[in-house]
Design goal:
This protein has helices spanning 2-24, 54-70, 119-131, 137-140, 154-166, 189-200, 218-221, and strands spanning 81-94, 98-100, 103-105, 109-111, 169-179, 207-212, 225-236. Helices cover 36% and strands 22% of the residues. Keywords: Chloroplast, Isoprene biosynthesis, Lyase, Metal-binding, Plastid, Transit peptide.
């Protein structure tokens, strides 16, 4: 009998708690759901990056239909800033040029890649595309497309900058780190940074470049590869 009373008490308490919670919640009738504003720029055909296939854009089209049916019709508020991260790595092989930030660096090895293998510019492009919530560089400029065979990476970064401006943003600041054992980049850092600033249309005070060795560890430390990381802050114009 005591157990039955306890069971009844727990059930009553649970129902009472549920009723109180339900009473405290606002009614959801008549309310609609809309997509996060960070995805809306992908829905406009005018903002679709060049090189994307129909299959790659089929999902956003479907989302647009759902959004059109459920959104309240109010314009989404643009984010005041966006942050993106980029990473790239290439093998170093004899017989290839070593191009970093658009600057040809004298070295016995260079980047084996479909394009010119500029690890820094590829990394910066991915950081900008990431900040804009767009597909990565490999999707927009696929490495199995003969059109990009041996292409200068400045082409890729100019397209990323175009998309950035089209979305209404500009460079707030950019911080990049190159990782390679050899050669030493100290004599070339300012030339690399100056060219990067020119390609981005950014104030030199907003662009930072660092170079690190990998302490002779793994492929990076054995002069068999080169890598780069980039973090970028985009500010609304």
């Amino acid at each position: 009998m005591a157990m039955a009373a306890a069971t009844n008490f727990c059930a009553s308490s649970s129902i009472s708690s549920t009723q109180k919670t339900a009473a405290a919640l606002p009614s959801l009738q008549g309310q609609t759901c809309s997509l996060p504003s960070r995805h809306r720029h992908l829905l406009s055909a005018g903002r679709r990056p060049a090189g994307l296939s129909v299959a790659a854009t089929a999902a956003p089209t479907a989302i647009q239909q759902v959004d059109g049916a459920t959104s309240s019709g109010k314009a989404s508020k643009a984010l005041p800033f966006r942050v993106g991260h980029g990473f790239d790595l290439h093998r170093l092989e004899p017989g290839y040029p070593l191009i970093i930030g658009g600057i040809n660096i004298p070295h016995e090895r260079g980047c084996e890649a479909h394009s010119d293998g500029d690890v820094l510019l590829h990394c910066v492009v991915d950081a900008i595309l990431g900040a804009l919530s767009l597909p990565d560089i490999g999707q927009i400029f696929p490495d199995n497309d003969p059109k990009w065979k041996g292409a200068a990476s400045s082409v890729f970064i100019k397209e990323a900058v175009r998309l950035m401006h089209e979305a209404g943003y500009e460079i707030g600041n950019l911080d990049a780190t190159l990782i390679l054992q050899r050669p030493k980049l100290s004599p070339f850092k300012e030339a690399i940074r100056a060219n990067l600033c020119e390609l981005l249309g950014a104030d030199p005070a907003a662009v930072n470049l660092k170079a690190k060795t990998h302490e002779k560890v793994d492929s990076l430390g054995e002069n068999r590869s080169i890598a780069a990381h980039t973090v970028v802050l985009l500010m609304k114009k």
